[in-house]
């Protein structure tokens, strides 16, 4: 029994398909099969049932749990030894959403490599449930995810409150509100309330931000006239730029998509009835059982500093 065989065994449990897993690992199906047979011989029991489909036996489930722990401990040991030797070599596996990743990676990675040129950065994009599952399983060192239900196995530290903005096409505002449009813009510069924009059609998103905004609309006692739904930030922004519908977006995601926002779109910070700004909170998450390496901690420091700079800027724009 060796670490490589355990690693291949664990990878096979992700697909339960010899050919697919072997392809991901860049080995032949026969080589993968040999490693599994070697483990079964070592433990003296079948780890998989082969028919009607590949599946773990009860013994296999226990070996999977052991394999996960073994890989976690092995990674921790490598990081500890790397820190001791000060070789500054290693690997960081980090994840966040596509739009946040595009913004953060372009500014942070060059600075990180200036200090740790021999450390490889492995980036994964995905939504919060997927990323937190990868952190939990040890496939990511840490991630930046949306705040949500706490998980016992994960540590969480808030890193940034991402402000929500309202994007309103100026021509559409004038069309729906006429002479009132000027007054609405003036009082919305410091904070826009949804009640002033309910005559407008809206495009909204079916994602975690969409869930946050759905709760916000309910608390505010308003029901926007929805003309479009999507899952990507750029879609509503393009509709706003075309003068078709108003929309919302967070500071970080809008910064990455500013090229998609036309010059005829007003951008107001969104507030509730009490005049409080609306935010979507982001946090670092990592596995409680892991020791973060020095270079992983430095990467997190860079992320914290970058988001700190965002707090100093405003996207507010009045046409």
Write the layout of secondary structure elements.
Elements: H1 3-15, H2 18-25, H3 29-43, E1 48-49, E2 55-56, H4 58-85, E3 90-96, H5 98-115, E4 119-125, H6 128-136, E5 142-146, E6 154-169, H7 170-177, H8 180-188, E7 201-205, H9 208-220, E8 225-230, H10 234-241, E9 247-250, H11 251-256, E10 265-269, E11 279-287, H12 294-310
Parallel strand pairs: 3-4, 3-5, 7-8
Antiparallel strand pairs: 1-2, 5-11, 6-9, 6-10, 6-11
Helix pairs in contact: 1-2, 1-3, 1-4, 2-3, 5-12
Describe this structure in words.
This protein has helices at 3-15, 18-25, 29-43, 58-85, 98-115, 128-136, 170-177, 180-188, 208-220, 234-241, 251-256, 294-310, and strands spanning 48-49, 55-56, 90-96, 119-125, 142-146, 154-169, 201-205, 225-230, 247-250, 265-269, 279-287. By secondary structure, it is of the alpha/beta class. It has three domains: 3-68, Arc Repressor Mutant, subunit A, CATH 1.10.10; 71-161 and 281-310, D-Maltodextrin-Binding Protein, domain 2; 162-280, D-Maltodextrin-Binding Protein, domain 2 (3-Layer(aba) Sandwich). The strands form three sheets. Strands 3, 4, 5, 6, 9, 10 and 11 form a seven-stranded mixed β-sheet that branches. The chain has a two-stranded antiparallel ribbon with strand order 1-2. Strands 7-8 form a two-stranded parallel sheet. Helix 1 packs across helix 3 (29-43) and helix 5 packs across helix 12.
